[in-house]
Amino acid sequence: MAELSDAFRIHEELSRILILLPSSLIHYSWEKILEYEINAHPNYYQDSILAYPLNNLMNEGQGVEKIISFLKSNSLVSARNQQKENSKRMIDRHNEIKNNFSSKDNGRYSVAQASVFAMVIQWIANFYIQNTLKIIEMILPD
């Protein structure tokens, strides 16, 4: 979402599409959904796990303008800047830990090393994604 703050030229068109197309999002984590399902057993969980945050803007006269305002907001621009900084650090962090996984004498990595290295990279990527999501959650209204 934060990347959209940089895409000034498409703000208006994107805002119109977001309002005109039906949309929904799952507003619970998979852990929360699982907890609801377990607690409802043997019945089914009856409440909706979906939220429709943009659909309400269709009925408002200023819906497009509200989305454009959000896309240009200081908080989203700030989140985007933080995201860019995090991505710069991710590359440095990747290079730092690469030395922990020394290659063979021929400079290549073994298949066994690849899976461990991939797990570490995925953890680092997830760390930065989770931090970015936390930033976005701080700026998005409930």
UniProtKB/TrEMBL annotation:
Protein name, UniProt field: Uncharacterized protein
